[in-house]
Amino acid sequence: MKSAIPYIQENKSRFIEELINLLKIPSISADSNYKGDVVKTAEVVRDSLLNAGCDKVEICETPGFPIVYGEKMINPDLPTILVYGHYDVQPPDPLDLWDSPPFEPVIKKTELHPEGAIFARGACDDKGQMYMHVKALEYMTKTDQLPCNVKFMIEGEEEVGSESLGWFVERNQEKLSNDVILISDTGMISPDVPSITTGLRGLSYVEVEITGPNRDLHSGLYGGAVANPINVLTKMIASLHDEDNHITIPGFYDNVDELSLEERAKMGEAPFSKEAYKKSIDINDTYGEKGYTTNERNSIRPTLDVNGIWGGYIGEGAKTVIASKAYAKISMRLVPNQNWEDITELFTKHFESIAPAGVSAKVTPHHGGQAYVTPIDSLGYKAAEKAYEATFGKTPIPQRSGGSIPIVALFEKELKSKTILMGFGLDSDAIHSPNEHFGIWNYLKGIETIPQFYHYFTEMSK
Ligand code: BES
Ligand code: MN
Ligand code: MN
What pTM was estimated for this model as a whole? Predict the structure, then answer.
């Protein structure tokens, strides 16, 4: 496969412009006010796949948001790569922390992106990374170099749990049959230290509700004599970790895959500066489970975090009140061999059991998914390694990520193929945060590297 650099240089401004147009549509899957925009984004993705050379593209209806499916089948005897990505984005809130509006993309230079980065919600997660695949396909078809068959499956519910995608995959195993699944929806260590993501954490996401008295009460007349749901909730939450920051839910760690000391030592060889880490997010120290390093805590260990907590009076000034209810949203990141449904049940039982007399506790599960690890001796991994060597001039490091793409474990179960996670974002790209951005260098490097993967995967499959 020839280097894509000349083609990329020639078409660079168009590639950027097309991505910017995609980023202008607020495809927020979590917010029903944006339904129309989510659907419109699917249509733009469909058109882009047709323009890039797919023979057949369709918008597949589901109980939720549509899935864009496209394919270019050149020869049934050649391998088939299935590309997955998502066109939906996270809500942009809080809006006032953005330096420019989230759906009015701007290009700005930063310390880590001297060639400029596109600032917009979805720039890195995942419109920018998904679109690298569309442009890589364009390069291969327009220059007659597509070496194998390709299928695209781009969904619009990743940020809300991929429920419809599970439904779709179960019903379309034949249509989606493939030799390897390729995803760019993760990150890499740095432009100088390319890495391939070999693991994703699972997830169990729940909402809890504590109910005390049947109405909000005067905190003077009743205070001290009835349970305050907010006091109780915070105490219950605090009790979910012990003094070593281990999670206290009985049975929580029972099935956790413990890594050997050798595996942990190998992980520890990846370049990491604790000082730079602290500085990048302005903290004066790291924090977490005793006995594990920062990189272990955020990848191979399970966690429990409150994502939001509310109740009572939060308006201006002071109001003396004991609220009737208090709420929190809690996520647990899981590791291989922990079953998310079992963990949700363990959490529910435990949480309800620690509620003191005077209140009642209710747990409502949201969504979840299993963790995923991919071996580094598979054909797909080796092809990816070669692709990075060709475009970065360096062997990439395997790295387990702390994030989750719950559908990946389901792909393996239903479609029986391995997933290769070739991410080109940086942790500092602020995905899910205000001022999300994606480096133009990263965007173009992805477009350059992906065709190499197609080439090596096809060659090595022979
Ligand atoms: N692309 C991310 C996941 C990710 C990012 C994995 C960086 C590894 C490195 C994905 O869009 C995401 O945000 N997933 C959610 C879970 C989902 C069910 C809402 C997550 O990890 O919080
Ligand atoms: Mn994503
Ligand atoms: Mn995301």
Answer: 0.94
